[in-house]
UniProtKB/TrEMBL annotation:
Gene Ontology CC: cytoplasm
Name this polypeptide is given: MOFRL-associated domain-containing protein
UniProt cross-references to Pfam families, sorted A to Z: DUF4147
Residues in MOFRL-associated domain copies: 1-186
Signal peptide positions (record): none
Gene Ontology MF annotations: glycerate kinase activity
InterPro entries reported in the protein's UniProt record: GK-like_C_sf (IPR037035), GK_N_sf (IPR038614), MOFRL_assoc_dom (IPR025286), MOFRL_protein (IPR039760)
Length: 269
């Protein structure tokens, strides 16, 4: 929401209109007048998120080559922008998302499936907006800042395929647990019966530009500065940690215990 408010303040009357999906309960008190805020659920896709995403698609679908789209992306975008592909119901998308999250699949694996069950992810929003120019401003919560992974890359070319998506379901033994319509879509995609998500070199990316304006690494730097300002011994263990929250939490607890007991790998704060 803060990104959208700031953008409207900067652009003023040059901004025609816009719509943004945000987490429930985060509607700003002092919103602008040209950008609509739609509350949606996270991490499981919701009906309200789907309606907001439809509005986004409607906004960009009739644009011409002289128009400019500014896409604002931050953490949680994959869940906040659900719009199932033709033949897929929202409930089926919710179910497969829950199964993938419970299975321990990585964010890259989850997004590979999401992209191929979506009407906007994996570069499909850029395809819908073409021939308009697109500038995407991004706050990244993804390790490595991969543009195809952040919010499932709605304006960035997809590096995964239907085969990749189907392989994820096979890997976690979910092919018998998800809806038959999901399996049918992925199999149709694998055999080329339906179009792939947009890939590098396609015309819709000719006038697309991307800028990461903040990331996890930036947040860590600010945390370090804040800690040192209070005379704390601050040390960044890693910027690439991934995994199940419970397992990562146990690892961090062991590190904290070692610091308290032995002053390693850093002195006691």
């Amino acid at each position: 929401a803060a990104m959208a408010i700031t953008l409207e303040q900067i652009l003023g009357d040059r901004l025609a209109e816009g719509t943004v999906n945000i987490p429930e309960g985060t509607v700003p008190r002092k919103a602008g007048h040209k950008i609509k805020f739609v509350e949606a659920e996270h991490p499981i896709p919701s009906e309200s998120g789907m309606e907001g995403t439809k509005q986004m698609l409607d906004l960009v679908s009739e644009l011409g080559s002289r128009d400019l789209v500014i896409c604002l992306i931050s953490g949680g975008g994959s869940a906040l922008m659900p719009l199932p592909a033709e033949g897929i119901e929202l409930g089926e998308l919710q179910e497969v998302t829950q199964l993938l999250l419970k299975s321990g699949a990585t964010i890259q694996e989850v997004n590979a499936v999401r992209k191929h069950l979506s009407a906007v992810k994996g570069g499909q929003l850029a395809r819908a907006a073409y021939p308009a120019k697109i500038i995407t401003l991004i706050i990244s919560d993804v390790v490595g800042d991969r543009l195809d992974t952040i919010a499932s890359g709605p304006t960035y070319w997809d590096l995964t395929t239907y085969r990749d998506a189907f392989s994820v379901l096979e890997k976690y033994k979910l092919t018998e647990k998800v809806s038959p319509s999901i399996i049918a879509r992925l199999r149709n995609g694998v055999r080329g019966a339906i179009p792939e998500t947009p890939k590098l070199g396609e015309e819709c990316f000719r006038n697309a530009y991307y800028k990461i304006i903040a990331s996890n690494a930036d947040a860590l730097e600010m945390a370090v500065e804040a800690g040192r300002a209070h005379d704390l011994n601050v040390h960044v263990l890693t910027t690439t940690m991934q995994g199940e929250a419970c397992q990562v939490g146990e690892h961090l607890a062991r590190v904290a215990k070692a610091v308290c007991q032995a002053g390693k790998p850093i002195p006691v704060p």
